[in-house]
């Protein structure tokens, strides 16, 4: 399957996702809350793809989970001047409204499919549950499941209906997770390190698949990753996170060609390159970055 080149959508008068001054902290026994996200602003248009890049602990996943309030509150404390999806205030939604958003409006693909899939339920049951909840009008669920398994590149999808997760390879498990996320036709897919647990060749297949599906479904995509080396063919824009803040954002090609922030520069230096003469990978100088932040 050839990868489609991501095309920047036309600017939208009203973003699909709008984040203003998002702050996330976690309560700690006997101590002040620990800040994970410290006042970030982001917009995402319909059909657009955004890569949120940064090392582990920078606040990427906390930001992604807060978009449908998947962080347990408490201990999480989520505040924002605005956090809206298609004009609807996520922070004011009750549990019933949030259940409609999760899966139907915002869907997730996580980095470890082995732990995301239920080991004692078949592929048919797990994808069927999502369809029953969010698309109850579907009469022939098996046919719809097969259609999506085929769409994500699983061979002989009719046979896979009866498969359990342990009978599938890691790449096939991740394809099942993508089918489960997309079968409810969400407006926004959040892929949180979706290739970390996979072989390099399978990683490329999964990333190409996400690019193709995003283009064909006109779906918005947020890719969470620590690796700037994989975002060029996937994302229209990049937001670089460092210690809970967005330190640089802009079109992907501009950021990769001319990074302005020292942390972005350091992340790019950490990307291995064929033919490099360096004896070892670059180490991030955090003292220098802190001086740059003031």
Brief description of this entry?
The protein is of the alpha/beta class and 294 residues long. It is built from eleven helices and eleven strands. The strands form two sheets. Strands 7-8-9-3-10-11 form a six-stranded mixed sheet, with helices on both faces. Strands 1, 2, 4, 5 and 6 form a five-stranded antiparallel sheet that branches.
Give your account of this protein's structure.
The structure is a single chain. By secondary structure, the chain is of the alpha/beta class. Helices cover 33% and strands 23% of the residues. It is built from eleven helices and eleven strands. β1 and β2 (31-44) form a beta hairpin. α4 (123-134) packs parallel to α7 (170-182) and α5 (141-151) packs across α7 (170-182).
Report how far apart the termini are: 47 Å
What's the alpha carbon Rg, rounded to whole Å? 20 Å
Q: What portion of the residues fall into strands of 2 or more residues? A: 15-25%
Query: How does the major sheet shape up?
Result: 6 strands, mixed
Number of strands: 11
How does the overall form come out from the CA principal axes? globular
List the total number of helices: 11
Overall pLDDT confidence? 84
Reading the helices and strands in chain order gives: EEEHEEEHEHHHHHEHEEEHHH
Strand order of the largest sheet: 7-8-9-3-10-11
Catalogue the unreliable spans: 1-12
| Helix content bin | 25-40%
Going by helix content, strand content and strand pairing, the class is: alpha/beta
